[in-house]
Amino acid sequence: MVAIREASRLSGVSIETIRYYEREGIISKAGRTPTGRRVYSDAEISELRFIKRCRDLGFSIQDAIALRNLADAPSDACETVEQLGRKHLSDVRAKLAELGQLEKALAELVANCANGQSDCPMLNALRAR
Hints:
Blueprint: E1 2-3, H1 4-11, H2 15-23, E2 31-32, E3 38-40, H3 42-56, H4 61-71, H5 78-113, H6 121-128
Antiparallel strand pairs: 1-3, 2-3
Helix pairs in contact: 1-3, 3-4
């Protein structure tokens, strides 16, 4: 059993995020010492790492919880996990497409600035929209 600071270091999850996860019921409340300090087991640290990995991949908290719950499920959970993964991958690809369009629009606006005009074309374009 380790204190919250060590759980944070071992899991890579900030202390405030660990407290938030507990408050919101994302993870179970930690055990307490007689003096009231939180203590975490290896299993709880593994759970924090799992959720962190999901979040690092961009999964929502709800999806991270669902994946964590499915990790303890029988092997038939693989189909559900695949569906969640495919949906998230589709969302990421859509965001990448949007970012590509954003990059193109910004590059065009910045290129207009390079023309050295006294009246800023980028500000004019932003005002017009």
